[in-house]
Structure formats: C-alpha cells, structure tokens
C-alpha cells in the first residue's frame, strides 16, 4: 500500500510526467497522469472531512503489479465500513457530493475500479466469465489488503453489477448491498434481439476495437470542451463546489482518455451495445438470503427499475427495498445528493440494526 501526498498546484504542474506527454505527443488524446491528479485533487478539495489518498497494492489480480486508487474517510470509526464502486467511465472524484455525508457515521472507502481512473490499467480477459472473475478478484484482493472483515457495498450502474457478483463469490464479506441504478440485471429485450443489424454493427465495432468511450479519445483535446456542453446533466451538478465549470469536464475527459482497460473488461461481460451476457436477475437467487438489499433508482433514468421489483418478488422473505428519487436521472447521486445520501445512510442504519439484533439472538442461544 502506498500513500500520495497533497502537493501545491505549481509543484504538480512542475513535476508532470514528461515521459507520458512525450510518448503521447503524437496522439490525439493528450492524456496526462499529472493533470488527472491535479483535477481530481481540485474536486476532492471540496470535502469538509479529512481524507486519505492511497494506492493499494493488490498484486497480480489481472496484471503483474496492480494497484487500486482509494480515497478513505473516517477510518477510525468502529462501525461497519462502506465501499463505493463507481459506474463505467467514472471514478472516485464523482462521489465528492456524497463522501462527507456517508462517512459521517462509518468508515468510507471509494475506489477507482481496477482498469479505471488512476488505478492500474491491465488487460482483461476477453472471456465474459473470466473477466467478471477478474473484477471480483481485484475487489477481494483490495479488501484483504485493507484488512476489512465485512463491509456494505454501494455500487452505481456497472458498480452495482460488480457488487452483486462479488457478493455471490464472497457472501461472508458482505453485510449489505445498496444498488444505485444498477446496470446488468435485465436480459436483452426481444426488440433488440430481433434487430439483426444491431448484432452485425456490434460485432463490427468489436473487431475494430471500438469501445464505449472511444469517442471521448477520438475527440482528443476538444473532448473536455464537448463534455462541458453535451454532458451538462453531470457537470452542472458540481457548480457549487468547484471553482471552474470545466473541472468536472476535464475529469471526465482525463479518466477516459487513457488506454482502455476497464472498458475491455466491461465489453467482455456485455453484448449488443450494453446488455449483460450473464444478467444478474438470473443469478439473484445465488446471493445469500440473509444479505439485505436496497435499490435506489432515478425516476427519469434509462435504467428500468423493474429489476428492483422483480428482485423483491424473487427474494420473498428476504430484506429487499426499492427507493425511487423523483426527477433524478441515471446520475442520481449527483442530481439530488441530499436525498441520495439520506437513502444510503438510512439503509446502512437499517442494516446495522438487523446485524445487532441477530448478534443478540446468537448470544442468547449461546447462553442457553
């Protein structure tokens, strides 16, 4: 495990990785690891609580020397910690509106999933089962390195899918799930399956190594400008905490301007432009019935909240609750952070009470 220290902006600018710039000078993307660090630190400087910025060594999960970028708050708390898993094309910086509130009552860890953001960028397996196992193995290696016994997992979009996959593999390490607009639950709908041209176009794109965020890299130095105008649904949500409206656009550009790694892993587990190869609803019965689940959806999201209701029916007798935030999009954590944070904390408090009650029952039985 290695730590990073905060540096003044001038020092960051002065120590920018020249080799990276020179190596990519001929490329259109112009990715800079030092610039990403600077932009991320600007975002995280809005946090009120002190935080630790660390790189956790997880060994040979996918590559030869993988490290997972981690932001940690309130590590001294004795309550069950919560791990935050972001969605596709995101990173720890986009949780800045949520970190303080979630860390108010417990240890809180946000990571750049291996292959994204400032974490290592290894090459994932092309086989869907193998790639999913690699994602899960990296999360488990991170947990072991951090010395956490059990944790709650909050996953957004793709992060929700991986949270469930991890829970299936390591149920004893998960005390509860909070799934925010989770991707990957539903099967490819018949209307998509019937359109043969979609399958042809998708296969062609894969053969050409065209990934979900290739368009960001193709836009090169204009990407941040385009994102600041085309993705105001995200960038505008941070206007009150960042000094420049371009900061979030720069962050989105830089986390996705790198050589695709996590994207390749994501492409391995999906088909037909975004539908899961192994839908989570088909495996939901493999999640330990004692593990509580909370779904949080945005009413205006492209994700169908039917998956939450179906899960509730399939897990009859288990704790499953579904929350919907009115007028929220897929990025509900940024649209209405106060409401979102309240739902997350209430879920954690509910899980705490359930665990405490179960512990008391166990103690009584042991005494008898």
From TrEMBL:
Domain (AB hydrolase-1): residue spans on this chain: 81-186
Recorded GO MF terms: carboxylic ester hydrolase activity; lysophosphatidic acid acyltransferase activity
GO biological process: lipid homeostasis; phosphatidic acid biosynthetic process
One Pfam family here: Abhydrolase_1
Gene Ontology cellular component annotations, sorted alphabetically: lipid droplet; mitochondrion
InterPro entries for the chain: AB_hydrolase_1 (IPR000073), AB_hydrolase_fold (IPR029058)
Protein family according to the UniProt entry: Belongs to the peptidase S33 family. ABHD4/ABHD5 subfamily.
Identification of the protein by name: AB hydrolase-1 domain-containing protein
């Amino acid at each position: 495990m290695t730590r990073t220290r905060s540096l003044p902006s001038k020092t960051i600018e002065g120590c920018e990785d020249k080799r990276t710039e020179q190596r990519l000078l001929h490329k259109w993307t112009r990715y800079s690891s030092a610039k990403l660090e600077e932009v991320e630190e600007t975002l995280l400087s809005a946090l009120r609580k002190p935080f630790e910025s660390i790189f956790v060594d997880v060994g040979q999960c996918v590559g030869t020397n993988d490290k997972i970028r981690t932001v940690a708050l309130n590590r001294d708390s004795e309550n069950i910690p919560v791990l935050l898993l972001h969605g596709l094309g995101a990173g720890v910086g986009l949780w800045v509106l949520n970190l303080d509130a979630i860390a108010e009552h417990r240890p809180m860890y946000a990571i750049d999933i291996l292959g994204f953001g400032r974490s290592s960028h290894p090459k994932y397996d092309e086989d869907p089962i193998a790639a999913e196992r690699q994602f899960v193995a990296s999360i488990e290696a991170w947990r072991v390195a951090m010395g956490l016994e059990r944790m709650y997992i909050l996953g957004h979009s793709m992060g929700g899918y991986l949270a469930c996959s991890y829970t299936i593999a390591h149920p004893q390490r998960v005390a509860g799930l909070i799934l925010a607009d989770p991707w990957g639950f539903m099967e490819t709908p018949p209307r998509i399956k019937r359109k043969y041209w979609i399958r042809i176009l998708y296969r062609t794109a894969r053969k050409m190594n065209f990934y979900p965020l290739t368009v960001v890299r193709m836009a090169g130095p204009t990407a941040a400008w385009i994102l600041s105008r085309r993705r105001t649904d995200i960038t505008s949500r941070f206007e009150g905490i960042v000094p420049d409206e371009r900061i979030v656009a720069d962050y989105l550009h830089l986390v996705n301007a790198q050589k695709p790694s996590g994207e390749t892993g994501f492409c391995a587990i999906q088909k037909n432009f975004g539908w899961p190869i192994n839908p989570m609803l088909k495996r939901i019965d493999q999640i330990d019935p004692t593990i509580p689940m909370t779904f949080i959806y945005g009413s205006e999201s492209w994700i169908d909240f039917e998956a939450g209701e179906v899960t509730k029916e399939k897990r009859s007798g288990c704790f499953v609750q579904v929350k919907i935030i009115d007028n929220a999009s897929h990025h509900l954590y940024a649209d209405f952070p106060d409401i979102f944070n309240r739902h997350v904390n209430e879920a954690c408090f509910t899980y705490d009470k359930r665990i405490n009650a179960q512990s008391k029952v166990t103690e009584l039985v042991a005494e008898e």
